Amino acid sequence: MGKTILQILKKVKIKSSKYGILNFIIDKFQKNIIQVKN
Questions:
Q1: Residue 37: its pLDDT value, please?
Q2: Which of 8, 16, 35, 36 could form a disulfide with 22 if both were Cys (CB 3.0 to 4.6 A apart)?
Q3: Backbone angles phi, psi at 19, to 5 degrees
Q4: Which pLDDT score, from 0 to 100, does residue 10 have?
């Protein structure tokens, strides 16, 4: 489950690379997921 979410986020991040704010939000979201897993 966690890996799938991260893969989707990476795809979204690549698609929205034009939008710095979206990248910032996605990076924060990824860090939160990693913290929860640990």
A1: 67
A2: 16
A3: -100, 100
A4: 79
Check if the beta carbon of residue 26 is closer than 8 Å to that of residue 7.
Answer: no
The overall longest dimension of the chain from CA atoms, in Å, is 31
Output the CA torsion sign for 23, 27, 32, 11: positive
The domain segmentation of the chain, as residue ranges, is 2-37
pTM exceeding 0.85: no
Using CA atoms, how far apart are residues 38 and 25, in angstroms rounded to an integer?
Answer: 20
Q: Which amino acid is at 15?
A: K
